[in-house]
Every structure is written in structure tokens, then in C-alpha cells.
Design brief:
267 residues, alpha/beta, Rossmann fold, 2 domains, six-stranded parallel β-sheet, four-stranded parallel β-sheet, 46% helix, globular, binds D-glutamic acid
Length: 267
């Protein structure tokens, strides 16, 4: 792994910027190329085959930018495409599922973990399967929350309607008496306050974005592949459609405005 190459991050759209933000916090000197497949978002409602194909195409674009590793920010892609990506590309590929699971299993005291995610991620069984493998005695309560993504993209994180929707989705999680909840979707960290408000502080929240950023840092440290020059990093933003829209909404996820977003062709 070449130290000075950028880290590649891809997602179905904007949500992966929560992962990029966490990676920047851990590794403030790394260059990053971010690709959002805004032409085909959402992935959370798509089939396994489509998600694998899209993910391979996204990673091919990142490889053309000579990335030293690929971070699959999208939970739906991480659920279905990780193996295919690892087979095809000669750089380390890190997904969001494993680090979230490791953290959650380490945190639970009553051996009951909740997982909320897109329909694709829940249907894949990726979180539940890995939790059972790592810690067979743990009971997993899963719930798909498809309306969360559009509500977050609309910027309605503090609206009453979002609280109502969350109350509905979280009923099963509440009944399941979990003490730990994995936010298994890129958009959900923005709903942390609403979710904690409903479940109470007794339920610990695992933010997959934060956990994967720690894993990325550990991997670079372990391979001595982190940038060693302390200069301002370069961030590139690529999208497959509507760069202006991406630029406008990026602040919501990243916390600041971005200057340039380039449209690219995915095939
Ligand atoms: N990035 C997706 C995920 O984490 C959420 C948005 C989508 O459905 O594409 O699963």
C-alpha cells in the first residue's frame, strides 16, 4: 500500500459522507476520493444482484483514481458485495458491518442487540448472521426503517413527523428489550437524538460510521500506510448524477460546504 495514495470511499449517494466525516476525524491528513452513485440511489430497496453490480462499478471508478484502499460506506453494499469486491480488487476493502458488530457485541450486557437498517440490509441478514457467529448467545432484534432515508435527506430530523415514524419503527426494538442498538445505515447517525429520545439513555447506540473509521485507521497503522506528511488533504467528490444537488445537501452530512463535485459516467 502506497502511503501517499488517497483512500477511496463509495456509497449509494450522500449518506456515506457520515462515514467520510468520521474518517477525516480519525485521519485528518489523508486524501480521500468519495464516490456517490446518485443516479441509482437508493440501494436499500434494490436486489442483491443489482447492489453487487453497482458496487463493482463504483469500486472500478475508485481504482482508476489509484486509491490505496476502498471503504464501502453503504451498509446495503457492505451486506451483499464485500466478497465480490475483495475477489476482484487488489486493495484492502473495508465494509461497515464488521466493525459495528464487534463494537455492539463488546457493549451489550444483557445479550440483546437491536439492528435498524434499510430493507436490503435487513433482508440480507448480514448483521444478525455476523453477531451470531461472533457471539452465539446474543439475541438480535432487527427492523427495517425505509422512511428514515428520505426524511433525513429532506432535512426533517427534528420534525414531529420523523419522531412519529421513529416511534412506529422502534416499537419492535423497544419490546425486544435490547440494551444496544446498531445504526446500520449511513443516514441514521443524523437521527441519533430522535432515536435516543424514544429508546432512552439505557440503550447504547453503535454508530457504524464511527466504528469503521477506527478500523480504517487501525488498518493503515498496522501496514504503516498512513500519510506521513502533515499537509492539507485533498478531497474529491464524484457523483453519477446531479452534482449541484449533492453539493447543496453535503453540508447536512459533512458539517461544512464543499466546493467542487464532478459528474462521472458509471457503466
Ligand atoms: N447508503 C445506504 C445504506 O447505508 C442508505 C441509502 C440507500 O438506500 O441507498 O444502506
Amino acid at each position: 500500500m502506497k502511503r501517499d495514495k488517497p483512500i477511496g470511499v463509495f456509497d449509494s449517494g450522500l449518506g456515506g459522507l457520515t462515514v467520510m466525516k468520521a474518517v477525516i476525524r480519525q485521519l485528518p491528513f489523508e486524501d480521500i476520493v468519495y464516490l456517490g452513485d446518485t443516479a441509482r440511489v437508493p440501494y436499500g430497496t434494490k436486489s442483491k444482484e443489482a447492489i453487487i453490480r453497482f458496487s463493482l462499478e463504483n469500486a472500478s471508478v475508485l481504482m482508476k483514481h489509484h486509491v490505496k484502499m476502498i471503504v464501502v460506506a453503504c451498509n446495503s453494499s457492505s451486506s451483499y458485495a464485500l466478497e465480490s469486491l475483495r475477489e476482484k480488487f487488489p486493495v484492502p476493502v473495508v465494509g461497515v458491518i464488521e466493525s459495528g458488530v464487534t463494537r455492539a457485541v463488546g457493549m451489550t450486557r444483557n445479550n440483546r442487540i437491536g439492528v435498524i437498517a434499510t430493507q436490503a440490509t435487513i433482508s440480507s441478514g448480514s448483521y444478525a448472521r455476523l453477531i451470531s457467529r461472533v457471539s452465539p448467545g446474543v439475541k438480535v432484534v432487527s427492523q427495517a426503517c425505509p422512511l428514515f432515508v428520505p426524511l433525513v435527506e429532506e432535512g426533517w430530523v427534528k420534525r414531529a413527523v420523523t419522531r412519529q415514524v421513529a416511534q412506529e419503527y422502534l416499537k419492535k426494538i423497544k419490546c425486544g428489550r435490547v440494551d444496544t442498538l446498531i445504526l446500520g445505515c449511513t443516514h441514521y447517525p443524523l437521527l441519533k437524538a430522535v432515536i435516543t429520545g424514544i429508546l432512552g439513555r439505557g440503550v447504547s447506540i453503535v454508530d457504524s460510521a464511527l466504528e469503521v473509521s477506527k478500523l480504517v485507521k487501525a488498518l493503515l497503522d498496522e501496514r504503516s500506510a498512513g500519510r506521513d506528511t502533515r499537509r492539507a488533504p485533498r478531497y474529491q467528490f464524484l457523483v453519477s448524477d446531479q452534482p449541484e444537488h449533492f453539493q447543496k445537501l453535503a453540508r447536512r452530512f459533512l458539517g461544512y460546504d464543499i466546493q467542487e463535485v464532478r459528474r462521472i459516467e458509471l457503466s
